[in-house]
Design brief:
Lipocalin, about 40% strand, mainly beta, eight-stranded antiparallel β-barrel, elongated
């Protein structure tokens, strides 16, 4: 009596996407395993039977959301005050950040489902008068209440992030400020903390890039034209639906 054809070993390999969730970028590179498939025999008859063709499961998307804590957006602008010998950095901070990030199994960002949103009215520096000026004149926060980033691609990641290590890479995406949308490149450093992805992203632009009015007040001698944005992030896996 002939035995059924053996099942190819590759058909018995199973992908385990949940094990890849501790870090976003490694998942983009490591999520290449095939879903499990089975090949069976058609009964114990005298004639040989052929193995069934393995059937692949639908590709798995990775879904992350901005964690409830651990997120902070900042701007930095160099200014020279009247009566001061040296310039100093003005820093405005907010933790009012929300959003989500969805990545296909092949590493592509699903842009229609990915967005990071910052509420600009909650930005605070060390001077209330400055904050009020920026909200009313520069950012016009009543008309344009948010800054939005829609990520599009990751570049510079060639291997998974080992436990306890970090990786630097570039992120490109469309940034919308003051009603103006422009492509931007962010320098990112990320690491895994449990199932979360934690790190910092930085970019820079000029006031003119987003049609922002450069601050001009009597006590400020000059304001540098470059604005630096920084985002300390913590993404966590989205709840199962």
């Amino acid at each position: 009596m002939s035995k059924p054809l053996p099942v190819p070993p590759a058909a018995l390999q199973a992908a385990v996407p949940s094990a890849l969730l501790p870090t976003l970028l490694p998942a983009l590179l490591a999520l290449l395993a095939l879903p499990a498939a089975h090949a069976g025999a058609q009964g114990a008859r005298a004639q040989p039977t052929s193995a069934a063709t393995p059937a692949a499961d639908p590709p798995t998307r990775l879904r992350f959301v901005v964690a409830p804590t651990g997120n902070e957006a900042r701007y930095r602008v160099r200014e020279q005050l009247v009566g001061r010998d040296l310039p100093n950095d003005v820093i405005g901070v907010t933790s009012d950040v929300s959003g989500r990030l969805v990545v296909e199994s092949d590493g592509r960002v699903l842009r229609d489902s990915s967005k990071i949103v910052v509420q600009v009215a909650t930005l605070k520096s060390d001077q209330t008068r400055r904050d009020n000026y920026l909200r009313r004149r520069t950012l016009e926060s009543e008309k344009y209440p948010t800054v939005e980033l829609v990520p599009s691609t990751f570049a510079g990641i060639t291997s998974p992030i080992p436990p306890g290590a970090s990786r630097a890479f570039a992120l490109t995406g469309n940034l919308t400020i003051h009603g103006v949308t422009r492509p931007t490149t962010w320098q990112v450093t990320a690491r895994a903390e449990g199932r979360d992805v934690v790190g910092t992203a930085k970019t820079a632009f000029t006031f003119a890039d987003f049609q922002l009015e450069q601050p001009k007040v009597p006590i400020v001698l000059s304001v540098a034209d470059t604005v630096r944005l920084e985002y300390d992030f913590r993404f966590t896996p989205a709840p199962s639906r």
